[in-house]
UniProtKB/TrEMBL annotation:
Membrane topology annotation: Multi-pass membrane protein
Source organism: Dactylosporangium vinaceum
Enzyme class: transferase
Identification of the protein by name: Sugar transferase
All copies of domain Bacterial sugar transferase, residue ranges: 310-496
TM stretches of this protein: 40-60, 80-97, 118-135, 141-160, 316-336
Known EC number: 2.7.8.-
Keyword Metal-binding among UniProt keywords: no
Lineage: Bacteria, Bacillati, Actinomycetota, Actinomycetes, Micromonosporales
Recorded family membership: Belongs to the bacterial sugar transferase family.
Length: 502
């Protein structure tokens, strides 16, 4: 990284005094970010938040009686408080909790967590104000308005997040142009991880090598690769607004510190991608010791109150699901029988938690001789892993194709969930006849397999075996109730649009 300490980046608009490192030192001038998509987006969020709070108050007033108790003689004051003061306080508290901070907008769950915390603060402020000024308010109406306000704000922000993701994936707007710095292998690993989530808005535009030479111009790489270039001129040439230091390059403290100094006041973001992959934020904690930021990685939490709640939730959802689906099973069974005489259900040995074998329940979607015909189709297998997959599998009858596309064939697995053999969310259950799992694949046996999971909401049969294993291991290492609920929500949309189902 010899090139990193030899350049200076100065904003063209800066007319301020310079420090010893050539960095603007004015305490009053705000740095203009090179990427400015967050400004109009934050303005839209402010409008949506005000609308959400006002809408919750309006619904409370129109649907509940005595909503303005204590202000019967002063309706104008009540309107001023509910439609002006309350939204203003809510916005200030949201701003104070960082809900408009560009670092948390557009990706991750931090934005929504901050909205929830801010809403609790608003509840405390309203309660304190009512107590301090002895205001006679309808407690139910106030509580309804505050809870509805939280729901509407979260819902509108979710809609805004989906619109932002659409703008990024379809129209390539509101993105960060990122220059990756590191060895070629480390930079390509980071590039591959970023490319898996285009909705995050990170677009690698180049790689600058810290070791070795740039490959031959005809060598195929996802982005141009440079070596021995001046970083400043390269950033300007690529019109980048973010620099990501990858892998071992991030372990060079002196060069990294100098790079951070040089970027002060330029509006260019500096990100560090350490050699920790597929480990979610809740397990990672930074603890500074004498100026050294130590990155602690906690063990996965596969026990405790949260895990107990997951088991209870699994049983409750399975029981409710079976009761709801029960009236429709006779019609589905008749359709299967008319398509091909034979059993209605298909049961196959699968490997569960801690390597225990169980028989999974599924609605039969193939002809009864499907197992025998598989040997004739082995050369057409489109899966590169333990599972056998063909897009237009001739062994699947017509009704079976519809059952697979709509994922209805998976519903009998609720019986496995009710019996404690499976979970609603978890790694995909693999056939038992493949024997002992080797290497990293064994780690997925720490939890019960699931009806749905990250593999299903990320492409299902369209995924490669390596990607499916990576997602399953990510789930095991980063399990949380929030992850389960988020996966269930995403499953609904995957099933509706029939993504990757065949």
């Amino acid at each position: 990284m010899g090139e990193l300490d030899s350049f200076e980046i100065l904003p063209d608009h800066a007319v301020v005094s310079l420090g010893p490192n050539g960095v603007p030192r004015s305490g009053w001038q705000r740095t203009k970010r090179a990427s400015r998509w967050h400004r109009p987006y934050a303005a839209i969020l402010i409008v949506l938040d005000v609308l959400g709070v006002a809408l919750s108050t309006l619904i409370a007033r129109t649907t509940l009686q005595n909503a303005n108790v204590g202000f019967e003689d002063e309706p104008g004051l009540f309107d001023l408080i509910t439609y002006a003061a309350l939204p203003a306080v809510w916005l200030l508290v949201l701003w104070g909790h960082g809900a408009y901070d560009r670092r948390y907008l557009g990706a991750g769950t931090d934005e929504f967590k901050r909205v929830v915390r801010a809403s609790w603060t608003v509840v405390a402020i309203v309660a304190f104000a009512a107590f301090a000024f002895k205001i006679q308010l309808s407690r139910f109406s106030v509580g309804f308005a505050l809870v509805a306000g939280l729901v509407f704000v979260l819902l509108m922000r979710y809609v805004a997040r989906r619109a932002l993701a659409l703008a990024r994936t379809k129209f390539h707007l509101a993105t960060h142009r990122m220059l990756l710095i590191g060895t070629l292998q480390e930079a390509l690993e980071v590039h591959s991880a970023i490319a898996r989530d285009p909705a995050a808005g990170l677009v690698p535009v180049g790689i600058h090598l810290t070791e070795g030479y740039a490959p031959h111009p005809h060598t195929v790489t996802p982005v141009p690769v440079h070596a021995g270039r001046d970083i400043l001129s390269l950033v300007r040439e690529l019109n980048a607004d973010t620099i990501a230091v990858c892998g071992s390059a991030s372990a060079e403290p002196v060069e990294l510190r100098r790079l951070a100094w040089q970027l002060e006041g330029t509006g260019i973001d500096l990100a560090v991608a350490p050699q920790l992959t597929d480990i979610a934020g809740p397990r990672v904690h930074i603890r500074p010791i004498e100026g050294i930021p130590l990155l602690y990685v906690e063990e996965p939490k596969l026990s405790g109150v949260g895990w107990l709640f997951k088991n209870v939730l699994d049983r409750v959802l399975a029981l409710l699901g079976l009761l709801i689906c029960l009236p429709f099973f006779p019609f589905i069974a008749l359709a299967i029988k008319l398509s091909d005489p034979g059993p209605i259900f298909f049961r196959q040995p699968r490997v569960g938690r801690e390597g225990k074998t169980f028989r999974v329940w599924k609605l039969r979607t193939m002809y009864v001789d499907a197992e025998e015909r598989q040997a004739l189709l082995d050369d057409q297998n489109e899966s590169d892993g333990l599972l056998f997959k063909i897009k237009n599998d001739p062994r699947v009858f017509k009704v079976g194709r519809w059952l697979r596309a709509s994922s209805i064939d998976e519903l009998p697995q609720l019986i496995n969930v009710l019996m404690g053999e499976m979970s609603v969310v978890g790694p995909r259950p693999l056939p038992a006849e493949d024997g002992d799992f080797l290497g990293d694949v064994r780690r997925r046996l720490l939890v019960r397999p699931g009806i749905t999971g990250l593999w299903q909401v990320s492409g299902r049969s369209d995924l490669s075996w390596d990607d499916a294993v990576r997602l399953d291991l990510y789930y095991v290492d980063n399990w949380s109730l929030v992850l389960d609920l988020h996966t269930m929500w995403r499953t609904v949309w995957v099933v509706v649009f029939r993504k990757g189902a065949y």
